[in-house]
Amino acid sequence: MEYLVGVIGAGAMGSGIAQVAAMAGHNVVVYDMDAAAAAQSRTSLERTLQKLAEKGKIGDAGALMSRFRFVTEMNALKDCGLVIEAIVERLDVKKRVFSEVEQIVAEDCILATNTSSLSVTSIAAACSRPERVLGLHFFNPAPLMALVEVIPAVQTAPGLTDAAKTLMSAWGKIPVIARDTPGFIVNRVARPFYGEALRICEEGIADMATIDKAMTETAGFRMGPFTLMDYIGHDVNYVVTETVFQSFFYDPRYKPSFSQKRLLEAGWLGRKAGRGFYDYREGAPQQEPVHDPALWTAISERIIAMLINEAADALYLNIAAAADLDLAMTRGVNYPKGLLQWCDEWSTEKVLAILDGLYNDYHEDRYRASILLRKMNAIGAKFF
Ligand code: NAI
Predict the structure, then answer these.
(1) Is the CB of 320 within 6 Å of ligand 1?
(2) 190-245: per-residue pLDDT in tens?
(3) Is 137 designated active site?
(4) For the segment 344-382, what is each residue's pLDDT rounded down to a tens digit?
(5) pTM
(6) Which of 48, 223, 256, 276 could, after both became Cys, cross-link 228 (CB 3.0–4.6 A)?
(7) Which 3-state string (H, E, C) describes the chain?
(8) Residue 26 is among the residues annotated as catalytic for this protein
(9) Does residue 11 line the site of ligand 1, with CB under 6 A?
(10) Does residue 187 carry a catalytic annotation?
């Protein structure tokens, strides 16, 4: 690849993205304002590449390492053709960094943000040439997760989105295009996986272990919602839910849960803290699921219907194409099946029966079915 890639922010995401770019053949400049973070990134990349070389997955780790420069001066980014920002998730800081980097790089340098929850359009607005800005949302860990959401801002130049998509494919990634709306695809469509599970638990319909069992055993997910929330950490998962809820002008569909908020307040952040929904401390008693396959089916169908509804509504609102919506969920968060594909297999009639049943019981807007499902059901249409 002929151009130099710059990465701003040498944390978990920046280091991972730098590794992906270097492995795709680019020379990479990794810039962090914190010298310790830049040094730590170098050390961890060295270790990772060494391990990959030992496993025979890459050739010479030293040769690959020579593609990186770790710097603490933003000026070192001046010759880059693409700069990807992965700093702290704060709009004011990102805006400042974008307006600064724009004065350093050439006019045709592409500027991308890895934000997972901020508006790409607001970040672009900090630039005098906002048409060169877009979102490239990698998933953690970036070298292992294939999905990249490509997010054009309102101002992004026509053609840049497709060019970025082509580049991400060349980097060995699976790019999907998402509209610049809260949560893009994955962080929006996945909300009911957590939210509906929490609701079912809070209402006492089933306990956590039983809900997790329903989603793994009956629905085929790799992890149940409570295990997954504990794994992600409530400092991340709860905050994403709250941000999405606020960004959607408090749409009740995305309402956060008090049980999860309390865990965050208690510092029971999940697996990394030794405690979350479950107790991971040495010798702690394990919760056993109730063995009730009929209950498992009812739980999993309720959660899957809510997920399908979210995906259908995202399609209806032109957030992404149908194929991209399914790719995002299968390759970004390892769902056993694309949600629209799932709907085709179940039928819109079945999904609507579940959603309308919930709506009739609760009389809550949270359970409103997407108009797209009704329109499709009326004419017997399928997504694929
Ligand atoms: P991190 O906290 O591990 O790393 C951020 C790095 O940016 C730190 O090394 C910090 O010193 C540096 N930094 C902060 N402000 C800076 C500035 N003004 N100039 C230069 N360097 C600066 O954060 P992480 O987890 O790597 O996330 C970074 C970005 O990626 C955030 O926008 C986050 O939303 C996004 N993201 C994170 C994911 C995750 O699972 N951690 C997944 C997808 C996106």
Answers:
(1) no
(2) 999 999 999 999 999 999 999 999 999 999 999 999 999 999 999 989 999 999 99
(3) yes
(4) 999 999 999 999 999 999 999 999 999 999 999 999 999
(5) 0.95
(6) 223
(7) CCCEEEEECCCHHHHHHHHHHHHCCCCEEEECCCHHHHHHHHHHHHHHHHHHHHCCCCCCHHHHHCCEEEECCHHHHCCEEEEEECCCCCHHHHHHHHHHHHCCCCCCCEEEECCCCCCHHHHHCCCCCHHHEEEEEECCCCCCCCEEEEEECCCCCCCHHHHHHHHHHHCCCEEEECCCCCCCCHHHHCHHHHHHHHHHHHCCCCCHHHHHHHHHHHCCCCCCHHHHHHHHCHHHHHHHHHHHHHHCCCCHHHCCCHHHHHHHHHCCCEHHHCECCCECCCCCCCCCCCCCHHHHHHHHHHHHHHHHHHHHHHHHCCCCCHHHHHHHHHHHCCCCCCHHHHHHHHCHHHHHHHHHHHHHHHCCHHHCCCHHHHHHHHHCCCCC
(8) no
(9) yes
(10) yes
Q: Work out the burial of residue 249: count CB atoms within 10 Å of its CB; fewer than 13 is exposed, 13-18 middle, 19 or more buried.
A: exposed
Handedness of CA 250, 253, 254, 258 (dihedral sign): positive
Catalytic-role residue among 137, 196, 234, 310:
137
The pair of three-digit structure tokens given for residue 272, joined into one six-digit string: 């990394």
Identity of residue 358: L
Residue 14 beta carbon below 6 angstroms from any ligand 1 atom: yes
Residue nearest to atom 3 of ligand 1 (CA): 11
Contacts of 161 (CB under 8 A, 6+ apart): 134, 150, 152, 177
Q: Do residues 275 and 268 make contact, with C-beta atoms less than 8 angstroms apart?
A: yes
Q: Please report the domains of the chain, with CATH numbers, ordered by start residue.
A: 4-177 (3.40.50.720), 188-379 (1.10.1040.50)
